[in-house]
Amino acid sequence: MSAFKQRMQFAARTAALLFVLVSIGFLSALIAVRYTIQGREVRLPDLTGKVEAVAREQVQGMGLGFRVEDRIYSPQPAGVVVRQSPLAGTRVKVGENEHVVLSLGPQKVTIPVLQDKSERAARIELLRSGMQLGQETNIYLPGGPSDQVVQQDPPPGAENATSPHVNLLVSLGPPPSAYVMPQLTGESLGAAEAKLASVGLKVAKRSPANVPGAQSGTVVEQSPARGQRVDSSVPIELQVAD
Predict the structure, then answer these.
(1) Whole domain around residue 9: which residue ranges?
(2) How far apart are CA 202 and CA 124, in angstroms?
(3) What is the pLDDT of residues 66-89, one digit of tens each?
(4) Residue 113 lies in a domain
(5) Which of 76, 118, 181, 213 has the lowest tally of Cβ within 10 angstroms?
(6) What is the pLDDT of residues 11-66, one digit of tens each?
(7) Under 8 Å CB-to-CB from 228, ≥6 apart: which residues?
(8) What are phi and psi of 167, to 5 degrees?
(9) Spatial contact of 104 and 78, defined as CB atoms under 8 Å apart
(10) CATH of the domain at 93
């Protein structure tokens, strides 16, 4: 065999070997990247029935945050996880939070009577009962007193409450009188304010405006516009020619 042919065969074997080594390196890098990406995710364990300290330690040991979102009454002992989100078995990225709801144990408090009390008195009664104010909603009631609880949820004496929070519906009293916004542009500032005062309204903001041709001291712009429905709670703004 000639020396040239031997050199060619050697070069071919060397090239084949290099190709195999490069291929192996590429596949190894690809597997490492996939492992790294998947390694950033963990599968959530089932935390329900575990006490807070154990659940917290387990979750934080997996590189996740642990947040208590609420506490509710349940047959489970106090301090035990009764709900979790995301659910057990879900794959999440390391660094995300696991949200849990803890048990307060069985309901032992009696829901107090809050209806017909003032909003402040209702808050104090809730604190005395070891409960908390939930969502408060206000409503206008024609002929009704203001600052009075007209409805509560759960109702007084409820024995199947799941939350220590009590939601209240509080009356604001009769709705304020409504008026149709008059035309004020072109009026003097004094005349405009007098027209508003005659129906129980007043100007909340006055702004100077440089309007060529407009007489100084006259209203050149108004908000709300003429014809809109307004009451005493609506801020009225006027621009006055300087």
Answers:
(1) 1-39
(2) 37
(3) 999 999 999 999 999 999 999 999
(4) no
(5) 213
(6) 566 655 665 555 666 665 555 545 444 458 999 999 999 999 999 999 999 999 99
(7) 180, 181
(8) -85, 140
(9) yes
(10) 3.30.10.20
Secondary structure string (H, E, C) spanning the chain: CCHHHHHHHHHHHHHHHHHHHHHHHHHHHHHHHHHHHHHCEEECCCCCCCEHHHHHHHHHHCCCEEEEEEEECCCCCCCEEEEEECCCCCEEECCCEEEEEEECCCCCCCCCCCCCCCHHHHHHHHHHCCCEEEEEEEECCCCCCEEEEEEEECCCCCCCCCCCEEEEEEEECCCCCEEECCCCCCCEHHHHHHHHHCCCCCEEEEEEECCCCCCCCEEEEEECCCCCEEECCCCEEEEEEC
Q: Residue written as tokens 């596949």?
A: 27
| pTM strictly above 0.70 | no
Establish if 165 belongs to a structural domain.
yes
Per DSSP bridges, beta strands 229-231 and 178-180 are antiparallel
Q: How many residues does the chain have?
A: 242
Asked whether residue 184 is assigned to any structural domain, the reply reads yes
Across the range 152-161, mean pLDDT stands at: 91
With tokens 């794959």, the residue in question is: 91
One domain, residues 91 and 68: yes
Q: Are 115 and 159 in contact (CB under 8 A)?
A: no
Domain count, the chain: 4
The four Cα atoms 127, 129, 135, 137 give a dihedral, to 10 degrees, of -90
Clarify whether residues 184 and 167 are in a common domain: no
